[in-house]
Amino acid sequence: xxxxxxxxxxxxxxxxxxxxxxxxxxxxxxxxxxxxxxx
Length: 39
Known about the structure:
By secondary structure, the protein is an alpha+beta fold. It has one helix at about 15-25, and strands spanning about 5-10, 30-35.
């Protein structure tokens, strides 16, 4: 089993499709969703 290495928090600064794509290409293993900034 592979261990998680890169965990990214997804919030207002990283919610666009292009930024998410760059995170995935950069090696993101897990996405943590931060809903504390939403309306």
